[in-house]
């Protein structure tokens, strides 16, 4: 699989720090997948959020990259949408 398909080619973000939303920062990081989750509900849902992010990245074929999540209580559908958008933006060339 080509590295562009496995990872990201540029930094990207999606979302906001508004209540009930999240900010996803995605960046190229060769050789591994690094996920950081910070959440206002970390104790209750931190592991669930990370698992959900990993599922979305697997669905999108992302095997390399650095993904940072700053969650403000977002629901699963919002987490999925924001991660997918950040990945899409991170795979676009500057010419797109």
UniProtKB/TrEMBL annotation:
Pfam families: ACP. This is Citrate lyase acyl carrier protein. Its EC number is 4.1.3.6. It is found in: Cytoplasm. It comes from Proteiniclasticum sediminis. Keywords: Cytoplasm, Lyase, Phosphoprotein. It comes from the Bacteria. Its main location: cytoplasm. The gene is citD. GO terms for molecular function: citrate (pro-3S)-lyase activity. It is an enzyme of class 4 (lyase). One of its GO terms (cellular component) is cytoplasm.
């Amino acid at each position: 699989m080509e590295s562009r398909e496995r990872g990201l080619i540029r930094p990207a973000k999606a979302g906001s720090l508004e209540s009930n939303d999240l900010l996803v920062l995605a960046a190229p990081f060769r050789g591994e997948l690094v996920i950081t989750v910070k959440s206002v509900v970390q104790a209750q849902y931190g592991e669930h959020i990370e698992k959900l992010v990993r599922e979305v990245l697997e669905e999108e074929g992302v095997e390399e990259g650095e993904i940072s999540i700053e969650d403000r209580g977002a629901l699963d559908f919002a987490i999925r949408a924001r991660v997918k958008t950040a990945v899409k933006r991170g795979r676009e060339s500057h010419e797109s």
